[in-house]
Amino acid sequence: MNKYIGLVVAVLLLIGGICASSGCTSTNLEETYQSGQTNSQNTYVIVDTGQNTCYDNAEEIAYPDAGEPFYGQDAQYYGTQQSYQDNGDGTITDLNTGLIWQQSFDHNEDGKIDYADKLSYVEILAMVAEGVIQHE
Q1: Where are the domains of the chain?
Q2: pLDDT tens digits along 18-46
Q3: Residue 108 Cα to chain centre, angstroms
Q4: Going by C-beta distance under 8 Å and a sequence separation of 6 or more, which residues neighbour residue 79?
């Protein structure tokens, strides 16, 4: 499950960047979350984060009603559910977006992801040339 946490964070950052550049408003974002579909302004699917707990400033709380403090948290919206496929080659495909993700950055398989696992640009190009990494 830990390998999906990085994936979720990356997707959220990607969505945030897209919304920041395309001018998403809280209204159309809520509509998209509620429907689980893209709306006329967005040309992409917003995938539900799976968050199902609401919080105040300090602790977990019951779902607040409209007009109450802390209303409108991610847990209160249902969207397109996460769907992934293991490609059997060290990658995962997000079936909602079509994006392909590397399962682990632990290239030297020592159980840690650290400086020793970085790949240089030249190493990445060599992996593409060998067919280890697919490039379209």
Answers
A1: 2-76, 104-136
A2: 544 444 444 444 444 445 554 556 677 88
A3: 25
A4: 32, 33, 34, 35, 36, 46, 47, 48
